[in-house]
Amino acid sequence: MVSFILASGSPRRKDLLKLAEIDFDIIVSATDESYPSTLPLQEVPIYLATQKAIAVAGLIFQENSKNEKCIIAADTIVLIDNIILGKPVDRDDAILSLTMLSGKTHQVITGVSLLWNHEVISFSETTFVEFNSLSKEQITYYIDKYKPYDKAGAYAIQEWIGVVGIKSIQGDFYNVMGLPVSKLIQQLKRLSLL
Fold first, then answer.
1. Can you give the pLDDT at residue 133?
2. Do 161 and 176 touch, CB atoms closer than 8 A?
3. 3-190 is classed in which CATH architecture?
4. How confident is the model at residue 63, as a pLDDT?
5. CA nearest 184: which of 168, 169, 172, 166?
6. Contact at 8 Å (CB) between 179 and 16?
C-alpha cells in the first residue's frame, strides 16, 4: 500500500489534497530557494519542487531501501514581464507586486515533483490570470487586512482580492492556489499509485 507525503507546509496545498480525498502525512524540510541563474524562468518551480522532494527524501529514506512512500512536492511562482514575483519580504514589497500585476495578465506556474522508488517525476502547470486595474486603496486594504506575505505574487485568488480584482482566468484555478490537483491525480494514476 502506497502512502503519500506532502513536502509542503502550505495550508492551501494541504486543503487541496484533502479535497481530492488523498490520505497523506506532512513532512517539511527547509530548502534553499535559490536556483541557477541560467535556468529558464518557466523551469524554476520544477527545480525548486525537486529540491524540496529530495530534502524530505533525505529525512525519511535510508539508502537503497525499498519504500512504499511517494513524496509530493510543489512550488509556485508568479511570472510577469520576465520577472518572478516571489513571497513579499515586507509591506512595500507586497504593494510593489500587486501594483505590477494591476491591469495586466501574468502567469502562475506550479512545478510538481513526485519522488517514488528513488526516481523523480516532474511536471508543471501554467495558468494565465488577468487583473482589473487596482486602486492604491484596494491594494493597501488587501495587504493590511489579509497580510499575504506567505504567497507568491502577494495574493491568494480565493481571498477578497481574487473576488474583486481578477478579471479573467485561463487554465486551472487550483493551480493558482498552489497545486494543479487534476494533473497530479492523472500522474498518480499513470504511475498506478491511485
1. 98
2. no
3. Alpha-Beta Complex (3.90)
4. 53
5. 172
6. yes
- Cβ count within 10 A of residue 130: 15
Distance between CA atoms of residues 146 and 79, nearest Å? 22
Q: Which alpha helices (DSSP H) does the chain contain, by range?
A: 11-19, 44-60, 91-101, 136-146, 160-165, 173-177, 181-190
CA distances (Å), origin 27, targets 23, 54, 55, 130: 13, 12, 10, 34
Q: 114: which DSSP letter?
A: E
Task: Name the catalytic one among 25, 75, 144, 150.
Answer: 75
**90 in catalytic set:** no
Adjacent-strand bridge partners of 24: 4
In this structure, what C-alpha cell is assigned to residue 2?
502506497
pLDDT at 98: 98
Tell me: the pLDDT tens digits for 108-165? 999 999 999 889 999 999 999 999 999 999 999 999 999 999 999 999 999 999 999 9
